[in-house]
Amino acid sequence: MIRTIHIPMGRMARPAVAVLLLAALACGGHKKATVTEAEAHGVTPVAPESPSVVETRSPAFENADAAYKAGDFKAAAELFRTKIDSAPDDAYTQYMLGLSSWKAGDFEGAKKALDKSIELDSTFAKAYFNEGRVLLDMKRPSEALEIIEKGRAIDSTSPDGLRLTARAKADGGDIEGAKMVYRELITRDETDAWGLNNYGMLLFAQGDVADALGPVARAVQVRPTSPVFLNNLGMVLEMLGDKVAARHQYELAVQNDSTYVKAVKNVDRLTGTISDSTAVEEVDVKAVAEQFRLLVQSWKTEVPCD
After folding, report:
1. Residue 284 above 90 pLDDT?
2. Rounded-to-integer distance, Cα 12 and Cα 239, Å
């Protein structure tokens, strides 16, 4: 049986949401990094080269880049650091050292390298955005917001910049400000899957579970094979009391990525509590997503888009 859920504007009990978030928060933490921590927050860590790069790619750079792409970030950082010894004024190598150090868990080293990259090329917005990401990981949201805003002054339309701004505001306690930024992002591009997902999960974390359903369902509609989005939709449905539909979304997440541990654990947990004979009463995700899409259309008269 398929049913359509109309999205109410009420709130669910926040303590229950906190319990489920602690048990199965699905923004990142992926076993094999199929979904990176950066991607989980809508940030693209690898960017086109900085306009200031004038040096021809050398074998040393290519070796470092290969290690980065292979996921060996510690080795990549060492190789980029060696490359910098011979080309200290190469802004893009400094940038890549910053990304590698960040992914290797060396936040201080990452910040230092990204600072240097910005010093050498103050027009490269991605360096500001990724330094903001590093500062967020260092639990310094006010500093992160400041550097992100500098990046947005260079590239005001970047979805990365908007997502990071929203996260910095949320981490700094400005929840309403974060919501408004996500709404601006989604209004500009109603198919921004990460923006939709992150907005929904912010609502979820605040206890607005019913309101979270629309944007998360829409994210799944835009990216139907994303294990993160499917798992998040399952979490929302479970908190709304529909364990059968929730398990179905968890199962779809596992089908698309059997290594996504959070979804695997959620399937196992619900399988023991739901009888196989239980009638499947599946939410019409497409209808819920369409309902939210229409809501976004109404925002266009409320949120200015430059």
Report:
1. no
2. 8
